[in-house]
Fold this protein.
Amino acid sequence: MNPLLEVGALRVCFGAVAAVDRVDLHLARGEVLGLVGESGSGKTLTALALAGLLPDAARFEAQTLRFDGLDLVDLPRRARRALAGGDIAMIFQEPAASLNPCFTLGWQLDEVLRIGARDGRSARRAQAVDMLARVGIADPAARLRAYAHQLSGGMCQRAMIALALARRPRLLIADEPTTALDVTVQAQIVELLLQLQRSDGMALLLISHDLALVAGAAQRAAVMYAGEIVECGPLPQLFDAPRHPYTAALLDALPPAPPASDPIRAGRPSPLRALPGVVPAPQARGPGCRLAPRCPRVRQRCRAEHPRLDGADQAVRCFFPLGAATAQPP
């Protein structure tokens, strides 16, 4: 079966600098794919490029960019924009900032629903009420008159989900959908997204730095570092046996689960193993592997050559992947 979304060698550039470089992804109909990585790795820019919502200062190019067989590379800007909010929808990191503070929630939902619709205003209002009810907002008819500042963080995120799903997209891109929400609300939002994804049969690209969230929600995951995919494969295999040192470092930085015999951690918690350094800026990337300055397994070849993303089931961008035989120590 042909994938719903095919991405090959996607680049997002600001002038001569490539912030996102050679990204390859594919997403099947009804699949949940997690995209994980540190802040600054290029996850949000990748999402904006896929949704056709890049800022004017950015330029994108790709060898392959297809949605349901439609070539998006040479698609006119107006036609590409028409996909945004329709067949492809996106939920942004800051729900309160993404809602227009000058208009009611009902006005904003109506603005989405009336694009290409033949229904009258009363029918659209009924659809808006139904959408708010679907995402778990109590007293939806009254909430149509509310402004963003009158809603809690969790309700703003539910309202954003309603706006994104109003036109029944086939692909939903959720960019850090639980940012700035408390733990209990995070769990509710994730469960809501997965419930709606299953009921509507849509594909979901779930972008997060929370590996536990992705592990519980996605069928596959792609790990991003310094603007490129460094590992991609099925779950739980990818997290159980990572092949790239960066994936392993992300997993090592997770706090350990408390033992069953000590649920309240009577002793001091064990220190986390953090990867030294930071993600290099796009203009500071060297010719070799982009993790080389931070990698504990670095060799001379890593500093001089740039590795390709290789492998069928669990692809990895590394000359000396974990679990493989290596010739000499560093």
